Amino acid sequence: MNARGALGRYGEDLAARRLADAGMTVLERNWRCREGEIDIVARDGDALVICEVKTRRAGGREHPMAGVPVRKAARLRRLAARWLLERWPTPQPPPGGVRIDLVGVLLPGRGAPVVEHARGVA
Prior knowledge:
Layout: H1 3-21, E1 25-33, E2 36-44, E3 47-57, H2 70-87, E4 98-107, E5 114-118
Parallel strand pairs: 3-4
Antiparallel strand pairs: 1-2, 2-3, 4-5
């Protein structure tokens, strides 16, 4: 694994821990299909959560919570629908619906990482 992959994996580990600390159940990580990848699939009560994780080092060009661009949001919605078709145990959608969240992880030069969680970004 290269440095970028290791950075992303570290950020996803922190994000999964943050979601679990918030009472969510992580169902799957790094789910892939031909159309792309979902970083984290979790359950928050009756809702299914598709979570995009952005990890950045401090001083970079873009803050990890800069948002999910329109194209990325559309792709995440398509991936969520695909995940439901392939992995959801019943033909009925989750009673609480599907939500797309963003977890941003900022790694400062010194000190603890800053982890932010935004619900329903797309």
